[in-house]
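Re: the 259-residue chain
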Amino acid sequence: MPPFLEVRNLSKTYKRSAKFASSGYRQSLGPINFTLERGKTLSIIGESGSGKSSLAKIIGGLIPFTGGEILVNGMSVSQMSRQKRCQTIRMIFQDPSNSLNPKTTIGRILSAPLRLNTKLTETEIKQQIKVILSLVELLPDYLDFYPHMLSPVQQHQVALARAMILNPDVILADEILATLDISLRFKIVNLLLKIQEKTNVSFIFVAHNMNLVRHMSDQILVMNHGLIVENNSTDEIFNSPQTGISRHLLQNHQPDYRK
């Protein structure tokens, strides 16, 4: 049986600017190889500029890749229709106050993906929205609200509902907790873990906070200069890091870390 999610020899190159004397192409990312099991959580960590956000955006379909493959359940995303890919992999962005349309009600924000990517009737759309609101622990009363009328945590819940509305296999989240204080971060993380237990969705997080990474992850990728330098279970990364980069990240973000 093939891995649930497999990233195989993934790479991204950019053409060099004509303003510079050098010519040809510049390798920006890869080759990247890793697998992820269904219902598990992968965190991608690394210093700024290591390529972690670029990797997430490539998997999420926001940036085209140059070489390699991304496969879900053995099927390449390159062979999927736009609707199928949207249903398979969804992305949550860093700041919901910017990613949620301020002129659109929560009800319209949640119904739009269903109208664009499914053939559900209006009755079925309303039922799906009701199910997803319950999943993210929001009341139906919020459907007539606009994003600015919600608290930061509620905005994150709406962003999560929008990601879950098509019942995806994989959700990518790029630093989605950075705008919340620490107590609210753990509230959202625990909600994510509840959702994962109920739906068996797989999560890929780009994250900096090592305490949250340890709390929510099954597997960690450590990136540096566009490459994976370590790929292991969360326990192995924290208890026995194999690279200087991994040790450096743990020491920087955990002052009491002394491995």
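Confidence is low (pLDDT under 50) at residues 255-259.
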